[in-house]
Specification:
single chain; 5 helices; 47% helix; globular
Length: 111
Amino acid sequence: ISMSSIHGLTGGKGEVAYSTAKAAVIGLTKSVAREAGKYGVTVNAVLPGLTLTPTIEQFLADKYKQEIIDDTPLGRAGQPEEVAKVVAFLASHNASFVTGAAIPVSGGWSA
């Protein structure tokens, strides 16, 4: 399970290097999924949007957090547990036929 970012799909103003790196993670995930499938290995990526981690809380100014929240269809930032639940699903047998997926966990931010 790879961790990318919603910016890997959408790009981001002032985020050229970050968005490029996260897009590369998505491409890597999809390519490895195609190669590893014959061995029964699933490979997927999770693409979080704004998630209220301690680092975000400490270093991202409230002004910028609010701008992202205002542009998010669900109208709020995510919680780490919400991202973790998607990771847990992908790691479970319930996702045994899911591979090559890039799953946004962004409150609809990429919509």
